[in-house]
Amino acid sequence: MKKIIDSCTHGLSFLIVAMLAAMVVLVFGNVVLRYGFNSGILISEEMSRWLFIWITFLGSIIAMRENTHLGSNFVVRRLPPAGRRISLFIGRLAMLYICWLVFSGALSQTLINVSVGAPITGISMGLFYASGMVFSVAGALVLVGDLYRLATGSMATVDRYIDDAGEQA
Fold it and tell me: Which end of the chain is more exposed for a tag (fewer CB within 10 A), N or C?
């Protein structure tokens, strides 16, 4: 199972790099064309915005999976092992609820805007808002896995959360 998750994470990283490269080409190409040839790529700005949103949400999935998101653990570090486990469990439950809120909001916006075309490309705006649904579903899966490991795993799992965040502080 870990190999499958690692390969999915690697695939997401590759996709993010490809999207970032496309953004760079679009924006840099547009700048060169505007200043050098008094022309431009019409869809550059819109597509760059869409790619940026998708990169942000896909990167958030990876950050959640690798426990590299922003956090402070100065209180949790001082708790006894059982307190750490309970604190992290409650935190993951709260994050799971937030994933539900993001999913329900993104689903509503996707359904509202599925028949609305983007101003320049005409691509369905539902695709724009679907990024929130993709993040929330993948994030919820990561959180459910974390909750399972916290409920049944060894103390090493809990210490990994504390130590990972501590190294970045």
Answer: N
